[in-house]
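User: Sequence in, structure out. Go.
Assistant: Echoing your sequence, followed by the structure tokens.
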Amino acid sequence: MVNFFANKWSSKGAIALALSTALLGACTNNLDQEAAAPETNVTTEEVTDNTNQLIGKTVTVRSTPIRTLGPSTFTISDKQFFGTEPIIVVNASGKPFTLPSDPNVPIQVTGQVNKFVIADINRNYNLGLDPNLYKDYETQPAIIAQSMALAPKPGEITTNPKLYYGKTLAVTGEVENIRNASSFTLDEDKLFGGQDLLVIRAGTPKGTVNEGEKVAVTGVLRNFVVAELERDYDLNWDLTLQKQLEAEYSNKPVLVANEVYPSAIPQ
């Protein structure tokens, strides 16, 4: 059994995301795992403190995994809040999700809050969980996850993109260098030493982004190869923009967005 240790987040707001306002066509990673927009956005501390009020609601939280319990279950917790109970996450999406090998890489989880009752979980989701392994978690806060995604920072992605190619990511950052309605960059955190991350939105984007706006973007990380991107997506680029982007980003990572929405995460 593999253990994952939590990384300290800067503040309570650092794991909350704002409501989705701009939805685009769905993209999936190599496991067909999608990152969904939330109905309600909370911290893991709020889930443990207000479980009864949140039961039945769909929430999105961002945190590093703490411990793997089984193929379909793991725990998350905000370790900076002393005494906070871990939340058990149950992967009920029907699709496999591999936790990051780097314990410092956070994930984004979207799902329904409930209390963990193994008899109900096994009956409703047919996961075949062994009751003996979950005695300590009975009636504890749980998120029945329908969507999960890795949530690295822009600089982490551009520094080591091979870790993330082909995967669905949930990335937050500040909008910079808007080229047109369909392309912009996310400002990298200088602490990580990477480059800004290029984001493109295929088709006709719904909603706009503004310079300096803090956003969350979910999508699939690709290698910037114009011929492949044009083949797979409706980009609507003019020739001048295409040449500019190709000169700057050829064979560099690009996040092909399926959703862009305001972020409550402070930069």
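User: And one key feature?
Assistant: The chain has a mean pLDDT of 80.
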